[in-house]
Specification:
Elements lengths: L6 H8 L3 H10 L7 H17 L3 H7 L7 H13 L8 H13 L5 H14 L3 H8 L5 H13 L3 H15 L3 H14 L1 H18 L3 H13 L3 H14 L3 H13 L4 H14 L4 H19 L5
Helix pairs in contact: 1-2, 2-3, 3-4, 3-5, 4-5, 5-6, 5-7, 6-7, 7-8, 7-9, 8-9, 9-10, 9-11, 10-11, 11-12, 11-13, 12-13, 13-14, 13-15, 14-15, 15-16
């Protein structure tokens, strides 16, 4: 089998169509293919299960002694994200991932999953970049683009995107990185991002991820009503923390009152207490309270 025959499976995953990705993996399971492609197929299917928050299933399927470093890393990510994992156990999981990427036998998938987990941890951007900065695969380069954008280094993100275009300009992943850079660039490029996302949605169908990207593009273009419509469609697809966070931003930019914003904020805090957004908000609120005490006037 030509590696390009996994194109649909990869594209469905990258676009957030995780159930369709799993279906595609099952559909091609009996086709003859090389050992490396079989591993790639299995890894994408497991990553899709992880994205669907089927943590116990992923942990069970990755717990054998003979699994690849990539599948082992996916299992560790499932443990890290699982609500049943105590917060004080997560540092140990990060240490295990660091040991995997330090091993000479590390695979590109293990490096990728480790980078994504380090980013999720919040304070390990350097470690994440070390995993992917060499750009061994298109996915490595895509994560590097995201990291550079977080660092406000659009120049480095653009350089990496140029390399992705040389490798595969038509790839869904390359197009998504184009969108991300255009969004960060601002209003002058936002309409181009909307056009690309509209094309992808027409070709592959809408999902939570694409609807959120579209909403953010509309906000960058100053079209907040259209952004709210996209977020409403994303909310109808299922509960998602990114949708809720973007909804708060959209409400703020439209000047809506706290009576509208607070219920969404409380929902995020209740449903996603370990999310970086919630933890960052708690730090800011704590700092504000400490400063407010200094100016408190005695009755």
């Amino acid at each position: 089998m030509d590696p390009d025959e996994l194109y649909t499976l990869r594209a469905q995953y990258w676009l957030g169509h995780y159930t369709l990705c799993i279906d595609e993996a099952k559909a091609i399971a009996r086709r003859p293919m090389s050992a490396s492609l079989k591993v790639e197929r299995e890894e994408f299917a497991l990553r899709a299960q992880l994205a669907l928050k089927k943590y116990d299933k992923v942990i069970a399927e990755s717990s054998s002694f003979d699994v690849t470093p990539g599948i082992k890393a996916i299992g560790l990510r499932a443990k890290y994200d699982s609500p049943s994992t105590p917060e004080d156990a997560k540092s140990g999981i990060l240490s295990e991932l660091q040991a995997i990427v330090s091993d000479p036998s590390v695979t590109t998938t293990a490096q990728l999953i480790a980078a994504q987990t380090f980013l999720s941890a919040g304070e390990m951007t350097k470690e994440a970049l070390q995993c992917v900065h060499q750009g061994a695969t298109l996915e490595h380069q895509a994560v590097a683009v995201q990291i550079y954008l977080r660092m406000d280094r659009i120049d480095l993100a653009q350089q990496t995107l140029n390399s992705m275009k040389q490798s595969d300009e038509e790839s869904v992943l390359t197009q998504l990185c184009v969108v991300q850079i255009k969004i960060v660039t601002g209003r002058s490029e936002a309409l181009d991002a909307i056009h690309i996302l509209t094309s992808l949605t027409e070709q592959y169908g809408a999902d939570v991820m694409l609807l959120n990207l579209t909403a953010v593009s509309y906000m960058a273009a100053g079209q907040h009503g259209e952004a709210e419509t996209s977020l409403a469609e994303a909310s109808a697809e299922g509960d998602d923390v990114d949708t809720l966070i973007n909804l708060i931003v959209c409400y703020q930019q439209q000047g809506k009152g706290m009576d509208v914003i607070v219920p969404v904020l409380e929902r995020i805090k209740a449903s996603y207490p370990s999310h970086a957004f919630v933890q960052g908000l708690a730090r800011v609120e704590g700092a504000f309270e400490r400063e407010a005490v200094k100016y408190k006037v005695a009755a």
